[in-house]
């Protein structure tokens, strides 16, 4: 139990620290930051439940007002901004990234980890982020999806980085891949 809590807190801290890296906002008002890399890593390294718990912890801390999001943002006001779908999407994104890695145990570790990061950290996260942008920015689905295009190259790089880091963590701590 303590080990799980420690891992969840550690990966929540990683997500927060990645938000301190310089970020910048595009036309949509959604910042490009490294925090989604942390979400991908939480899922691929910790698995579905613990990864989602780490992401949920960061979301909770942000919503209570601590400035843990890119650009020093936090508080309930983020629920009214164009990033709401991405922020709330961190939880299912980490869960799905972890689920992919858990279910595909026999595959090559690098391929499994990158696949988990891609499916959870890009497909799921973009779907929910797009819904949030549609609601807040009053855009149609196609317009909202177009606003996401500039983020894709960076997120593909982040998914690849997450894959390599996850593979190395699994090599160093094989029990983490087994979900122990």
Automatic annotation (TrEMBL):
Pfam families associated with the record: BioY (PF02632)
Assigned GO CC terms: plasma membrane
Keyword Electron transport recorded: no
Domain of life, per lineage: Bacteria
One annotated GO molecular function: biotin transmembrane transporter activity
InterPro entries: BioY (IPR003784)
Family of this protein: Belongs to the BioY family.
Name of the molecule in the record: Biotin transporter
Annotated organism of origin: Frigidibacter albus
